[in-house]
Amino acid sequence: MSSAPHSKNARIGNAACAELVTAIHFATMIGIQKGPIAMMQSLFPDDNHLGLLTDLYELTMAAGYHVHGMAQQRATFELWVRHLPGCRNYLVAAGLEQAIAYLTHLSFASEQIEYLRDHPVFRDVPGDWFEHLADLRFTGDAWAIPEGTVVFAGEPLMRITAPIEQAQIVETFLITTLTVQTMIATKAARICSAGQGRLVFDFGSRRAHGPQAGLLAARAAFIGGCCGTSNTEAARQLGIPSLGTQAHAWIMAWGDEAEAFRRFSTLFPHAATLLIDTYDTVQGVRNALASGSAMQAVRLDSGDLLTLSKEVRQILDAAGRSDVRIVASGDLNEYKIRDLLAAQAPIDSFGVGTELVTSRDEPTLGMVYKLVEQETPAGKVGCFKSATAKKTYPFAKQVFRETNSDGFFSRDVIALGDETLPGDPLLIPMMQSGRLLRPLPTLAEIQTRCRVQLGRLPAPLHSLEPVADPYPMVLSERLEGEAQRLVAMNTR
């Protein structure tokens, strides 16, 4: 069989493959260092190396803007979620503090600039761009919806107006930072709502997608309503409660369950939560009582939590230990917690791990960051996409939230940034010319804001299932009119 008909495609494929192999070879070689210790890297970002925490194509576009004299042209980008995930009736905005910290510290270290100089993709880029990177800082403006605010699809969570080169470079970091924390804060809010006022703890660090993800998840979970975290470093940095019980390994290491309980409570008499399901849960609670331990709580981590919690409660009460609380954990989520409490499970608090920090049922958000406006000598020009299912609206925007006479949110209006409409404007100025305009709220203040916001959400939206009538959102007449005008101009 002749291969001639495919020869042209084969040559194209071989050329592309060769270029890819060259890039991979470069990426491999550039990371090689002498000595086994020098090659060890934690891969935790630091404030002195933020410049390359972005996708490569952001940097190729930045270089292109520079070469063609556009780098300093001011442009506005907005970040929002295209659609609510299938089982979410609202979102809780989170991650702004880390986004602002990134914008404040953005710079390129000398070794990062040298990396780009040697990169084959940039071999034709003039040298002055690399020199320019050494002085690049974020000098733009940032508007944002405060953390802890209930938000909906299509609403700008953040608006960046800056020289287009800068505004382009920051896209990747802003998307990933706001995505992960908004996703987890929303999940935490749902779980805490299902808990009906019972304490919920973040137990998820070991199940998070990496150590830093565990830190971010602990922060977002606290915003959403969790009362503390098992992640000790997150607790230290964030100033929130840290908590933990004991491992099955501790119980097994002593050989005798009652002795393990006794030894633990002797050392930790004021923080003794005893893990009673290593062998047999019912016998475990009896052993805990027999040990004379100064326990505050017992923890159930496996099995039929409904049946076991009722049996354990009966045994504790019969022994005169109604003061001992029951903590439940083990692959819990909002649905399981709802069902346990509906069945009258006598559980006082919940530890939630995997389902919380990964938002397992809806593990991503369709968050995007799009150019909406450019400033030209002739004035501001609206930018938009009209592609099917990816339509965007032009110009900088504001969101106005209206409230009914009972104090509940009634609808949101997405408007042009210079409009003044009824309701509360959600986006507030955070940075101007690269400088912070106002102190950031404490984490406790953000958590309080989230609680108040959820309290003003219409009751049907608290459902764990999708509602038939989503929260009302409309576009202002001026915004809709500008969009239609630009579409008509571009389709002539």
Mean pLDDT metric: 92
Molecular shape: globular
Overall CATH class of the domain at 56-184 and 363-490: Alpha Beta
Secondary-structure-based class equals alpha/beta
What is the radius of gyration computed over CA atoms, rounded to a whole number of angstroms? 27 Å
Q: Can you describe what's shown?
A:
There is one protein chain. The chain has 492 residues and is of the alpha/beta class. The protein has a domain at 56-184 and 363-490: nicotinate phosphoribosyltransferase. 40% of the residues lie in helices and 17% in strands. The chain contains 17 helices and 19 strands. It has helices spanning 7-30, 56-67, 96-105, 110-118, 127-133, 164-169, 171-194, 211-224, 232-238, 248-254, 257-267, 281-290, 305-318, 334-342, 354-357, 443-455, 477-490, and strands at 74-81, 91-92, 141-144, 150-151, 158-163, 199-202, 228-229, 273-275, 297-300, 325-328, 349-352, 367-376, 379-382, 397-403, 409-416, 424-425, 428-432, 435-436, 473-475. It has a 7-stranded antiparallel beta sheet. α8 (211-224) crosses α9.
